[in-house]
Amino acid sequence: MSAPVTLSPMIDQLQLGSSELQPKTETDVAASFGKALADARGLEKQATDAAERFANGDPSMGIHEVIIATEKASIAVRYATTLKNKAVEAYRELMNTQV
User: What pTM, to 2 d.p., does this model score?
Assistant: First the structure.
């Protein structure tokens, strides 16, 4: 049987407006972004491994598992990209603020 593919707990428990998921300091923001990137990379690797196992004829790997792993990786990458875009947007707004 294939190893279960899970999203990061942050993505699994994401609720709009939840204050407990909001980073509080710059260190928290950096750690959150780093974790999102690491999770995305791990999920991409799992999706690639699942696709390779399916292509090699592994009887325990079904096409549905490959598609699910690929979608989870896609969601994680989009989440990390969204975090990056928000950070860049906040930085640009800060730089354009007149003192």
Answer: 0.66
CA–CA distances in Å: residue 52 to residues 5, 38, 48, 57, 95: 15, 21, 6, 9, 46
Mean pLDDT of the chain: 81
Q: Is 3 a domain residue?
A: no
In a domain, 14, yes or no: no
Task: Give the pLDDT score at 97.
Answer: 87
4 within a domain of the structure (yes/no): no
The rounded distance, in Å, linking the Cα atoms of 94 and 78 is 24
Range of the domain at 84: 25-96
Confidence of residue 21 (pLDDT cuts 50, 70, 90): low
Report the domain count for the chain. 1
